[in-house]
Amino acid sequence: MSVPGRNSPTSVARHPAERAGRPPSALARLRDSDLWYSFTRSPITVISALIVLLFFLGALFAPWIAPYNPFDPASLNLMDGFTPPMGEAFSGNSYLLGTDDQGRDVLSAILYGARISLFVGFCAVLFAMVLGISLGLLAGYKGGWIDSLIMRIADVQLSFPAILVALLIFGVARATLPRSFQEDMVIYVLIVAIGLSDWVQYARTVRGTTMVEKNKEYVQAARVIGVHPMLIMLRHVLPNVMGPVLVIATIGLALAIIAEATLSFLGVGVPPTTPSLGTLIRIGNDYLFSGEWWITLFPGLALILLALSVNLLGDWLRDALNPKLR
C-alpha cells in the first residue's frame, strides 16, 4: 500500500480551515504569503506603515481628536498669536506646538491640513492611474498610429518638469473657470492638474507590459474564440499589468503630496481658508526670520515624515513584487 505524498489529495491540509473542510480565509492566506513575510521582516517598512497609518487616522478623525478647530473664527483669539510651543498663551489655553499669527493651534492645523493634502494626493494618483492605464492599454494593444500618437505626446510632456506642467494646467483651468466658481473648484482643479502631469509614467509602464502580454497564448486564445478586444484588455491583460502600477502609485502618492504642497507654497494651490500642509509652510515662512520658527517647522516636518514614509513603503513594495529578488 503506497503512502500518500505531500502534494496528494489525501495529505494533511495546511490550514485548520482546510482540515475542517472549508477554504482558508483571506486573512489566513495573507499571513502565509511571501508579501506578509517580507513586510514583517523589515523593521523600517513596519515603522513607515505605522507612521502612514497614524497620519491617515489623524486626518480622518481630525474633527474629533484635534484640540481646537483652527477654522472656526469664533474660537480664535488674536491675542494668542505667536505663542511658542508649550508656552503660556494670553487666554490661558495650552498649545502643544504653539500658534500661528492668527492664534490658530499649529497641531490642529496640521491635522486638518493633512486631510487636504492626502485627499488631493489620493485623488490625483487615482486620476493619473485611470488615465495612464487606459492610454497605456490602448497604445500597447492596438499599436500603429495610436501607439505613436500617445507615446509622442508622452515624450513631449516628459521634456518638461512635472511641476511646470501642473502650474500650466492649473493656470489655464483657473483662467477658463468663472470667477464665482474658482474658490469652490480650486481643489478639483488642483487634482486634475497634478493628475495630468503624472499620467505618463503609468502609460509607459502599462504599454510595455501590454506589448508583452498580448502575444501570449491566453490572449491569442481569447482572440480566436471571438472575445471583444475591450474585454480582452480589461479581463485578461489588465490584471497582469497591475503589479508595476501599484508600485508606481505608491511612490506617486508621495510625489503628488509634495506637488500639492509646492503649488500651495507658491500661492496657486488651495486657498488660505482651507490650508494644506503646503499652505501652512508658506504662512510660517513669512515669520521664519522674525523668530516664530515653529509655524513653518512643524508642518514641514510633518510633510517630510509623511512623504518619506510613503516612499519607503513604495520601495519595499517594489522589491517585494520583484521575482528576481525573492
From TrEMBL:
SUPFAM superfamilies: MetI-like
Keyword Metal-binding carried by entry: no
Taxonomic superkingdom: Bacteria
Membrane topology (UniProt): Multi-pass membrane protein
Keywords assigned by UniProt, alphabetized: Cell membrane, Membrane, Transmembrane, Transmembrane helix, Transport
Residues passing through the membrane, by range: 44-66, 116-141, 153-173, 185-202, 237-259, 293-317
Compartment(s): Cell membrane
Compositionally biased tracts (Polar residues): 1-11
Residue ranges of domain ABC transmembrane type-1 in the record: 114-314
UniProt xrefs under InterPro entries: BP-dependent_transpt_permease (IPR050366), MetI-like (IPR000515), MetI-like_sf (IPR035906), OppC_N (IPR025966)
CDD domains: TM_PBP2 (cd06261)
Chain spans, region Disordered: 1-24
One Pfam family linked to the record: BPD_transp_1
Name of the protein this chain belongs to: ABC transporter permease
